[in-house]
Structures are given as structure tokens and as C-alpha cells.
Amino acid sequence: xxxxxxxxxxxxxxxxxxxxxxxxxxxxxxxxxxxxxxxxxxxxxxxxxxxxxxxxxxxxxxxxxxxxxxxxxxxxxxxxxxxxxxxxxxxxxxxxxxxxxxxxxxxxxxxxxxxxxxxxxxxxxxxxxxxxxxxxxxxxxxxxxxxxxxxxxxxxxxxxxxxxxxxxxxxxxxxxxxxxxxxxxxxxxxxxxxxxxxxxxxxxxxxxxxxxxxxxxxxxxxxxxxxxxxxxxxxxxxxxxxxxxxxxxxxxxxxxxxxxxxxxxxxxxxxxxxxxxxxxx
Length: 281
Prior knowledge:
- It contains 8 helices and 9 strands.
- It is of the alpha/beta class.
- It starts with a helix and ends with a helix.
- The relative contact order is 0.09.
């Protein structure tokens, strides 16, 4: 199996996907820092397949930075990683994180330490100062530079970073976003029907936006983007070619099956409730 470094040298651009809980954990770590700490660091755990690194977990690592030196608690790092391995053996060290919007001279030393833990560690940065009005997120990989057998430095190259979330997390994130619009920072979780209605409305807005974009390109009001065109073509090719009558028939059949399953589930629930009541009599 090719290593991360081999994949990078082969010309495949590395990518990073991060679970939302990792971001929240890093921000929580930063909020609990001591007064003397200007930033916090920690270890990133996850998996790597084909140049795509998925960061699914983390743990903080104590460190001390001064004007002339930096010290990382390596024993704490090893102990925490061994404990994590007992819980989830599939997660391995994939890099490290730090708060702040810049790479300092100490970042090179810390990155060298994590280079001994994995082939091509990822350095994830969170701008907790919110300098641009939002928390900027960036990821880097380090490559050696300099004269062979002489002074060697580290060149940090930015790579693509995106958020990886599953359906339960999507619902939670949508609920958190709604708290921004409420005065008391509270939000009610939507029911299944409300989520379906919201999804249909969102899909309708996206389709309307796509149609407007295509019309503007055809009318030569704006220049077309090849990347967007290929994306739209791939999306349309995945839509099944069905006429309205056939689609309505399939929808009604599926709806009848769902209603039947719901009815049978209610019968089973009522039967179990009657049996429990009979045992208590």
C-alpha cells in the first residue's frame, strides 16, 4: 500500500476532510487554555485512503512556548494515543492542529515531531481570532527544502480542506445554525415532515439558481465555467429518465408500502402493550 508521501510525490493532490466534532473540540480546548497560552495544539486522528485524509478524532497535547524555545509533552502524547488505540484501533495519527492564523518558527519543530509519527502529517489551523469576521480553516502539508546534506527547512503547502458530516450531524448543524437567528439562542428540532418540506424547498431554490445560471450562459450574459458545466452534466446524468405517470406510480407504491409498515408497527406496539397489561393483572 502506498504511503501518503508516495501519493504526494506521484502527483495526486492530498485532500483533508474533517468531522464537525473535531472543530468543536479544538475550540473547546482553546476556550479552556491558561492565560499564558496564546495558542493550543493537539494530535489529529483518522484514516487515509488514496490521498484523502479523514480526520475523525483528536486529543489535546500540553505544550509551552516561550521567546526562545518550545516544549511538547511527548509522554502525554504517547499515553493518550495508546488509550485511543484501545478504543478504536482503526484511527491512526494523521497530523496535528494549532489555533491561530499563521505558521510560526515553532510550527516547523512541532511538525518535525509529527513527521516521525506518520508519513505525511497534516497541519490544521483554526483562526480563533476571527480576523476576517469568521473562523478561517486551513490545512497544510510540510515538505523539506534546502541544500542536501546542509541546512534543510520546511515548506508548508496549503491543501484543500472540507467538512465531512453524516446525516445525524447534518441535522444537528442545521439546528445550531437556526439559533443564530433566534433572540434566545434556542431552536426546536424539526419533525420528519418538516425536514422533508425544508429539503424540498432547498432543492427548489438550488434548481432555480441553476436554471438562472444556464440561461445567463446561453444568453451570453456571463462566461460559462467548464467545471460547473461538468458538475451539472454529471448531476443530470444520475437522474433516472422517467415520465410523470411512471414516477407517480412508483411514488404511490412506495407510499403504500410505507403506510403498511407503519400500520403493522402500530399493531405490534399495541399487542406488546396489551401483553404487558395482562401480565400485571
